[in-house]
Amino acid sequence: MFPAAAPRRFEVQNSPISSSIVQMAEDARHGLTAPQKFIPSKYFYDGRGSKLFEQICWLPEYYLTRTELALLRRKAVMLTRRFHNGDIVELGSGANWKIRILLDAMDKSRRTGIRYIPVDVSTDALVAAGEGLLNLYPELEVISVTGDFIRDLHQIQSDRPKLIMFLGSTMGNLDGDEARTFLKDLADNMGSQDRFLLGLDMVKPVEIMEAAYNDSQNVTAEFNKNVLLVLNRELGARFNLNDFEHVAFFNEQLSQIEMHLRAKRRLVVHFSDLDWSVRIEQGETVRTEISRKFTRPQVEALAQEAGLSVATWYSDRKRWFSIAEIVRQGR
Fold first, then answer.
1. pTM, whole model, 2 decimals?
2. Which of 59, 179, 187, 201 is most deeply buried (CB count within 10 A of its CB)?
3. Among 144, 187, 146, 117, which residue's Cα sits nearest to residue 42?
4. Residues facing residue 279 across a β-bridge
5. Which CATH code is given to the segment(s) 52-205+295-328?
6. Please, are residues 124 and 47 in contact by the beta-carbon 8 Å criterion?
7. 141, β-bridge pairs
8. Within the chain, where are the H helices?
9. What are the C-alpha distances in Å from 87 to residues 115, 142, 171?
């Protein structure tokens, strides 16, 4: 648990579980031996992957970031109302664009009493974002946590009121079981005064969704293949990026965009650090990401099942993106 008070500083804490190469090895072996091969999308976000994703966010086809930031700017005062002398916890924080919008909605005296706790798998991204924030808001305290918020949520505790942010479309990266487990764990770790801001990419015309993951500049394709470079570096894998092509499409039955890497030829990829190899057939795919698209009734049902309730719902004018303000039931 974080202490009730600490010197004003920038600190990075590492989760011993999530930062372990052992966990990555287990995830890679499990995913690449599944009937539908997969690599967890969290491994996209090393330093290079985080920078590529920042580029994606400003591509013409990628509506999500523009729409969400515009919504945040319109609703920032409402979202931060009544919040002072507490902790803002941002899960999957990445760059510092979103937290800056909320901090700008508060005056300096309110920011002085706030501790910002970003959680991300990339230490490089956390350091860059944290140092940038302190340059803009020297009155702020930042305690960055390198970790996997799915596994390590119980470690992110505080005895002060919390505003927990899970923005972007990261919720969509969790399948149904993962989403239910995450929300239940979140509910167990929320106090009666805590609020949870959940960003949601909503169902919309298929051509708009698919274009966002198949940009004309092929930045998303480069981002997709970056996960192979991570496995090469961290686990001694011998993936050749030229052996794969980027594939992204909307799975209507599951209401989710899927990103895959499709093998151009039959491959046997060796992991020297694991003394293990995986066979991938020509045309076979490795799924690297899902991005589920939601409707409001789906979200309200998920929250209800976890012991939470949607207190307020905000959407842009086209209803392409939403932010749900969620609290514990009975509050």
1. 0.89
2. 201
3. 146
4. 268
5. 3.40.50.150
6. yes
7. 115
8. 21-32, 47-57, 63-79, 97-104, 108-112, 123-136, 149-152, 176-189, 206-212, 219-235, 296-305
9. 5, 10, 21
Smallest CA-to-CA distance from 209 within 253, 173, 255 is with 255
Ordered by start, the domain boundaries in the chain are 52-205+295-328
> What is the token pair recorded at 62?
């990628």
Can you say how many angstroms the Cα of residue 170 is from the centroid of all Cα atoms in its chain?
4
Whether residue 140 contacts residue 114, with contact meaning beta carbons closer than 8 Å, is answered with yes
φ, ψ dihedrals at 149, nearest 5°: -65, -20
User: Could you tell me the two tokens for 99?
Assistant: 């937290």
Residue 119, beta-bridge partner list: 91, 145
Amino acid 235 reads L
- Give dist(CA 87, CA 103) in Å, integer: 12
One-letter amino acid for residue 47 of the chain: G
Q: What is the DSSP string of 237-280?
A: B---GGGEEEEEEEETTTTEEEEEEEESS-EEEEETTTTEEEEE
The three-state secondary structure class of 145 is: strand
Could you tell me which residues come within 8 angstroms of residue 317 by beta carbon, excluding any fewer than 6 positions away? Answer: none
Per-residue pLDDT of the chain (331 residues; tens, 9 = 90+): 444 444 457 777 765 544 478 889 999 999 999 999 999 998 998 889 989 999 999 999 999 999 999 999 999 999 998 888 899 999 987 778 899 999 999 999 899 989 998 888 777 778 888 888 888 999 999 988 887 777 767 767 678 999 999 998 889 999 999 999 999 999 998 988 999 999 999 999 999 999 999 999 999 999 999 999 999 999 999 999 999 999 999 999 999 999 999 999 999 999 999 999 999 999 999 999 999 999 999 999 999 999 999 999 999 999 999 999 999 997 6
